[in-house]
Amino acid sequence: MSDPQRREFLVAAAGIASLATMSAQPAVAGDPSFMNNVPDPALSGKDLPAFKFALEKSEGKVIGSSYGKEATVTQLPISKGIAGVSMRIEPGAMRELHWHATAAEWAFVIEGRVRTTVIGPSGFAETNDFDPGDVWYFPRGHGHMLQCLGDKPCHFILIFDNGYFSEFGTFSITDWVGHTPRPLLAKTFGLPEAAFEAFPKEEVYFARGKLPPAEPSVPLQGWKLPPETHKYRLLAQPPYSTYQGGSEWRVDSSRFPIAKTITGVVLDLDPGALRTLHWHPNADEWQYVVEGTVSVSMFGSHGRYRIEQLDRGDVGYIPQGYGHSIENVGEKTARILIGLNAGIYESIDLSQWIAGNPADVLATNFGQPPELFARFPNHDVFVADRIGPGK
Ligand code: MN
Ligand code: MN
User: Fold this and answer.
1) Contact of 64 with 88, CB cutoff 8 Å
2) Is residue 271 part of a domain?
3) How many other C-beta atoms are found inside a 10 Å radius of the C-beta of residue 33?
4) Interatomic CA distance for residues 99 and 383, integer angstroms
5) 265/344 same-domain check
6) CA 182 to CA 171: how far, in whole Å?
7) Residues 103 and 169: beta-carbon distance below 8 Å
């Protein structure tokens, strides 16, 4: 390279470097979509990675007859956007007071009864009792506890809007108090240091005691209810939609205003029925099979296609924007719990995409006669039964 050439090269390189700095700065500082635009190494391979994890077959954390089993990026590397937990609590036990620094918590009760307390900013606190089919949502950072209500165990599924979040890395009250110097505690609460002598020194996680009272007791501060409730009775509502082949219950922030980062769906599919091909433009999808056996397909561009069979207690994960479907391949009704990490439900269905285009466009795209497309549905199929879409 001659000197003038070198100089030109250096000037051009400096220009590119400063351009790169200029464009990168605002994206890193303030644009949340920036992260979505960087290729995810887990999804950049020649083949799609596994998107299934046998959650209920995993060991988890067990204390007495209570357990928590989790699916995070450690167990299921593809699931960067959402983590989930299956938790069972025995009568008299509670998942102790704690908060999550890095995730909001959404839950669906499968069995038994649960009581929760939750505190938010400004001292607003709520106590709620939950039955099967009910849902709660705790915004990121809000302190809460989960308690088995009554003399039968309870079982529920927790969904977190961050796949890196671990249920075993929460900020628990005993962990904090147990590691705080007693003079600090004494000053905070206006009690002698000796009052804290017998407090637990390490995180309790599942605390065990008497059965809770049938009705919630008044908090020390009296009732100071928040403007938005943390409870939603999902299965007590009529389904959001019903089809020949299945029903769907859906709750997002349009019905449950506090749930600003997670949408929940319960999908019942008859044997042979299919939640048809679709994608979510705004969210990742986390699946938990409550009942039955389903076949989940995933399309990831570049000819990449993968199908997993999910049995009862298994978890599946579909990244934002990836095409997918869910088919009941078992003998009885399948029930799938679905969590999406967005406060508003959005999907685009392949059948509706086709229906949203004229026959000549479809004819040219597929190299088929236009008449063929007159036989396609002119609407969103959403769920098809064993033999196909209803009319
Ligand atoms: Mn929690
Ligand atoms: Mn979906």
Assistant:
1) no
2) yes
3) 7
4) 38
5) yes
6) 19
7) no
The residue range of the domain holding 164 is 52-232
Q: Which ligand is nearest to the CA of 287?
A: 2
* Mean pLDDT, range 74-90, rounded to an integer: 97
- How far, in Å, is the centroid of ligand 1 from the Cα of 282? 25
- Give the Å distance between the CA of 279 and the centre of ligand 2: 6
Q: What is the pLDDT of residues 174-226, one digit of tens each?
A: 999 999 999 999 999 999 999 999 999 999 999 999 999 999 999 999 999 99
> Which one of 113, 115, 142, 144 is the catalytic residue?
144
Question: Does the annotation mark 98 as catalytic?
Answer: yes
| CB distance 266 to 134 below 8 Å | no
pTM value is 0.90
User: Considering every ligand atom, which ligand is closest to the CA of 336?
Assistant: 2
Residue 263 CA to ligand 2 center (angstroms) comes to 11
Answer yes or no: 105 catalytic: yes
DSSP symbols for 154-190:
EEEEEEES-TT--GGG-EEHHHHHHTS-HHHHHHHHT
Of 201, 232, 263, the residue that ends a domain is 232
